[in-house]
Amino acid sequence: MLRIKEGGLSTTVQDTGRFGNYHIGMPPSGAVDQYAHRIANFLVGNEADAATLEMTYSGPTLEFEEDALIAVCGADMSPSLDGEAVSTWTAIGVDAGQSLEFQFATEGARAYLAVAGGVDVEQVMESRATYTLIGIGGYEGRTLEAGDELPVGEPAADAQEGATVDDDVVPDYGSEDTIRVVMGLCDYRLTDEGRDVLLGTQWKISDEADRVGYRLDADVDIQDLFEEREQPFGAGTDPTNVVDLGYPIGSIQMAGQPIVLMRDAVTGGGYATVGTVVSPDRGTLAQGRSHETVTFESVSVDEALTIRESWNDQLDALREELLG
Amino acid sequence: MADNVIIEAPMPGVFYRRPDPEEPVFAEEGDDVDAGDKVALIGVMKSFHDVTVDTDGVVTEFLVDNESEVEAGDALLTVAPS
Amino acid sequence: MGESRIERQSLPSPRYEYGADDHVFVELAESMSFTANFKAQAITQEVRGRDLPGIVEVAPSNASYLIHFDPGQIQPDDLIEDLRDIEDEIDLTEYTWEARVIDIPVLYDDPWTHETLMKFRDRHQDPDATDLEYSARINGFDGPEEFIEAHAGAPHMVTMVGFVPGLPWTFQMVPRDQQIEVPKYVQPRTETPSRAVGFGGAFTAIYPVQGAGGYQLFGRTPVEVLDVGQELDTFADSMVLPNPGDIINFRRIDRDEYDSIREEVESGEYGYDIGTVDFEPEEFFERPESYTQQLTEVLD
């Protein structure tokens, strides 16, 4: 059992996501940075789909009722056990009764706490991921608060304290991010110049960027990027409107400003989407902090597939190394 | 008398001196405060972090305007410990 | 006098678009029509039925559809080839599906959406009228009464579900010249009551939960379209009521009926009136008025 003493800014139980229900409006949820989430799991002997705690900017304070093996990956929030600093990206042994505390993240936005055995809350539609909008999954469908008690599953027998990863596995969250995008979907609605503006602008991550969408600011009038046309039947009157359609996770929706849809996304609607962030880069973007800037780089679908494959290969190799 | 204590923003976001636009401010310059009192909020990603003072004293100055953007490490206000 | 038919639209070639490495988006038409939507429904039903490898999500939308897949199991170009084959093979004039017909009682011009819409007149095209008055006027009706009669007068097809879980977009099953069209608010509202029945573009929507919204507000239903706790019997298998391809019959009720249904819903005893039909698009296109009348006869 994990006892939450302080909830942190916004801490939720997350996993690899809830799939199969997009057609009834259910986004996948799950850890927005799957890279850090998965490595944290592997370090403690869990499979990728075990549930971790996703912590935003400032982590919770929690107490362990039993001995445990934990790992913290992602943004560095300087974790400490009973006041003593512990390493990140490393499997750490915890004694029953010890308290884990975090500081504010100095680089990156989200860290993941994995516990051997996984956070064992009940599954909803085959996933433990929290989706706060309708209050399902995770712990009572909401962010964690003081007093919450989270069950922990049965650890794998051979998980080892001290397991760690090479330094080059750990991302540099402080660097300026280039987010790779496959342009398409409804990008025919953009003028050539509009497309250049989207790809050439340094976009600032807004204060409202969250798990639903990363809103991006710049001094750009979005309507000016669009071709004028007589709007088709059913599409709505604004030039950025289209007949309502499904939004891919990672797509860039042009709703007054570009919004990159994250894992708690609205699943569809009437704004033109003009490209989709390559799947590994969705996690990179999710580590972007409010007021940091990002730029988009257009890549082909073949390049996107290669990027995904090497991301998968890297994680598979780490899984192999840590889980055997 | 001890030096003014500077309270910094621990995270980026928007600085709020009121719980709600209609409500009064948490604290004015010159107000007495106790350790642990909430004197402002930082809103980010639709969550709110309480800015609290860690010493008894008097709020001497707010260094940023209500609803302005702040970065992690920005000085927000000063408190003269009593 | 023969009733008017619905003309099949000739659709352009579908646009197959990559949504990065793990989605394919297929736009069947830029404009809304039953032809485009039925094609989206038919193809996505067929994709589900074929059990292709690596398919994660299959979501029809108004005039398009979206597929989320695992490129570790199927390459996007192979998937697109399969989708093109399905498109070639499906004979839309023959395609039918089992559809549920769902009775959705609506208190039009209800006090709750009225209060909300009055609060946001400054964001509306016509601050001096209500949403119903405005919508009636720009669609050439004498007034709200006649307009409500038209809206509740023929059933609506669920052409897409999404935005948030359980929110149906519905398209009224009448010929194009009888379709209602109303723009969304100039500026979206920050509030909408739960279970509000709204209208934007050519679509009616039911808001499952309260929240922001830009659709014109016509009324409120006492019944749920999303039941997260799955407390009502109808939600035993899914927390969401409407599915793409369902047919909704908006039925005008008065305040007394609203209150009594609401009471039953809240006590968990409400039984939805739902029938099942074999939906034949060709019949619908040929004789929309009598066919939709026939469809709603499965309701109590």
TrEMBL record, chain A:
Coiled coil is among the record's keywords: no
SMART domains: AHS2
Coiled coil: none
InterPro entries reported in the protein's UniProt record: CT_A_B, Cyclophilin-like_dom_sf, PxpC
Keywords of the record: ATP-binding, Hydrolase, Nucleotide-binding, Transferase
An annotated Gene Ontology molecular function: hydrolase activity
Carboxyltransferase domain sequence ranges: 23-314
Family matches, as PANTHER family: 5-OXOPROLINASE SUBUNIT C
Name by which UniProt lists this protein: Biotin-dependent carboxyltransferase
Protein's organism: Halorientalis pallida
Lineage: Archaea, Methanobacteriati, Methanobacteriota, Stenosarchaea group, Halobacteria
TrEMBL record, chain B:
InterPro entries according to UniProt: AcCoA_biotinCC, Biotin_Carboxyl_Carrier/Decarb, Biotin_lipoyl, Single_hybrid_motif
Keyword Mitochondrion attributed: no
Transmembrane intervals: none
GO CC list: acetyl-CoA carboxylase complex
Lipoyl-binding domain segment(s): 1-80
Keywords, alphabetical: Biotin
GO MF entries: acetyl-CoA carboxylase activity
Protein origin, superkingdom: Archaea
CDD domains linked: biotinyl_domain (cd06850)
PROSITE patterns: BIOTINYL_LIPOYL (PS50968)
GO biological process, one term: fatty acid biosynthetic process
Protein name: Biotin carboxyl carrier protein of acetyl-CoA carboxylase
Source organism (scientific name): Halorientalis pallida
TrEMBL record, chain C:
Domain Carboxyltransferase, residue spans: 14-242
InterPro entries (UniProt xref): CT_C_D, Cyclophilin-like_dom_sf, PxpB
TM annotation in the entry: none
Sorted UniProt keywords: ATP-binding, Hydrolase, Nucleotide-binding
One Pfam family hit: CT_C_D
A Gene Ontology molecular function term of the record: ATP binding
ATP-binding found in the keyword field: yes
Official protein name in the record: Allophanate hydrolase subunit 1
Native source species: Halorientalis pallida
Taxonomic lineage of the native organism: Archaea, Methanobacteriati, Methanobacteriota, Stenosarchaea group, Halobacteria
